[in-house]
Design goal:
The complex is a heterodimer of chains A (about 35) and B (about 170). Chain A is built from one helix and no strands. By secondary structure, chain A is mostly helical. The radius of gyration of chain A is 13 Å and the shape is elongated. Chain A starts with 7 loop residues before the first helix and ends with a helix. Chain B has one domain. Chain B starts with a helix and ends in a 6-residue tail after the last helix. The chains are: A mainly alpha (about 35), B mainly alpha (about 170). The interface between A and B is medium-sized, with 19 and 28 residues.
Chain lengths: ~35, ~170
């Protein structure tokens, strides 16, 4: 089964999305910004 | 003075071991960006070029470098007196604490998911041929998950020192 991890681009795109999501979570939920 | 030297040494070790670990992972992404499925005959024949190439890869140093990286990172948080707040995500130490949890996840992924399956692929642990072929797919995905996780990890590491304003 194909996954986004099958290409370097897909892996990096997921990494960028995860970074943004975690930033928003830590910023808003944990630090209450 | 000794406290500063200890802090510097821990950071040095953390970066050095971290580069060995993640550098290994990134080198794999650069050299083999896409997944290449193994065939049963690749693993069934111990003299096949694919199997010999797999065996010839580095399998030990980066796994232990991962442990050293994690220990040095925890040591840095302890030495700075922020280990508890970081791990429990309290206040601004939550920024590096997020990095701590991502790094912990990566270490566990490496040792508990990737390596047990890699041992099957390489034949260090006996397994049916189909399972060894399937394990090669799992090791690939496990390694790429760590590639992905390294991106927010590095972001939170950098942000904890240079990007506090982003979280204000």
């Amino acid at each position: 089964m194909k996954s986004p991890f099958d290409t370097a681009t897909g892996t990096i795109a997921l990494g960028l999305l995860l970074t943004l999501a975690l930033y928003l979570i830590v910023h808003s939920l944990v630090l209450g910004g | 003075m000794m406290v500063h030297i200890l802090g510097l040494m821990l950071l040095w070790v953390h970066l050095f071991a971290g580069i060995i670990w993640i550098g290994h992972n990134y080198a794999n992404v650069v050299q083999r960006p896409g997944f290449r499925a193994l065939r049963p005959e690749d693993l069934g024949d111990e003299q096949s070029p694919t199997y010999m190439a797999l065996l010839g890869r580095e399998h030990g140093t980066f796994r232990y470098a991962a442990i050293v990286t994690w220990l040095a990172g925890v040591g840095m948080l302890w030495q700075r007196g922020m280990l508890f707040d970081a791990v429990t995500l309290r206040g601004y130490p939550a920024i590096i604490g997020t990095g701590f949890w991502i790094g912990t996840l990566m270490l566990l992924n490496l040792w508990l998911v990737l390596w047990p399956h890699q041992k099957k692929v390489l034949g260090f642990v006996s397994a049916p041929l189909e399972e060894r072929v399937r394990s090669a797919r799992i090791t690939f995905l496990s390694a790429r998950v760590n590639t992905m996780l390294s991106m927010p990890l590095l972001f939170f590491m950098a942000a904890s020192q240079h990007g506090i304003a982003l979280f204000a």
